[in-house]
Amino acid sequence: MNVVVKHICLFCLPEVVCGAPPIYLDYARSKLNPNIDVAAQNCYKVAKGAFTGEISPAMIKDCGVKWVILGHSERRHVFGESDELIGQKVAHALENGLGVIACIGEKLDEREAGITEKVVFSQTKFIADNVKDWSKVVLAYEPVWAIGTGKTASPQQAQEVHDKLRQWMKANVSEAVANSVRIIYGGSVTGGTCKELASQKDVDGFLVGGASLKPEFIDIINAKA
């Protein structure tokens, strides 16, 4: 199982990735155990230019960092990043040797309208169209209505979406990729919810926020033990 920290990612636990703000990437990499990877929380779609405040894959790699989180719901809904832009970022990050943790997920009104699959499939297509090597990509399903709200998708709800994503991957990418791609769940994961979520067939790990700062994070890392 895998885990990512905000962000912490757990892919195929106990593989752990710590997602740090850009000014702390070098510090995090120098202080963390080498067995724990580090991820940037964002990067831009081109190598250089007049893009004040942005960070490039080359800058991230200069810090010894191997991963980047792209398409997080806050990037989409607070900063207005489109599916197209996120796809372009995915392509550039992969071309420059970073692994990508690509986030997808529906808002509450979209779930209530019954269009969860339509939303996450559309988001996934823009990512998939820009991926050549899926071994370098982790999909993170984060229902927006469950992020930081204390609400968690039920294990059954998470499994249902993860299963549908694998079916979409099988039909639109390949059966081999559908079977091998790691799909992790994010959205108020806690020590109390992680065991049952981890027991689901298609949940390969977690994208963890606030709980990564608490002692219960150990329980999340060991959820599949």
Q: Give the SSE order as H and E letters.
A: EEEHEHEHHEHHEHHEHEH
Mean pLDDT across every amino acid position? 92
Strand order of the largest sheet: 1-2-9-8-7-6-5-4-3
Alpha-carbon distance between the termini? 9 Å
**Overall 3D shape:** globular
Structural class: alpha/beta
**Main sheet: strands, sense, barrel:** 9 strands, mixed, barrel
SS field, number of helical segments: 10
Oligomer: single chain
Structure description:
The protein is α/β, with parallel strands linked by helices. 37% of the residues lie in helices and 19% in strands. It is built from ten helices and nine strands. It has a nine-stranded mixed β-barrel with strand order 1-2-9-8-7-6-5-4-3, surrounded by four helices. α9 links the parallel β8 (182-186) and β9. α4 (83-95) runs parallel beside α6 and α6 (116-128) packs across α7 (155-172). The model has no long low-confidence stretch (mean pLDDT 92). One of its GO terms (biological process) is glycerol catabolic process. Pathway: Carbohydrate biosynthesis; gluconeogenesis; Carbohydrate degradation; glycolysis; D-glyceraldehyde 3-phosphate from glycerone phosphate: step 1/1. It comes from Cyprinus carpio. InterPro entries: Aldolase_TIM (IPR013785), TIM_sf (IPR035990), TrioseP_Isoase_bac/euk (IPR022896), Triosephosphate_isomerase (IPR000652), Triosephosphate_isomerase_AS (IPR020861). It catalyses: dihydroxyacetone phosphate = methylglyoxal + phosphate; D-glyceraldehyde 3-phosphate = dihydroxyacetone phosphate.
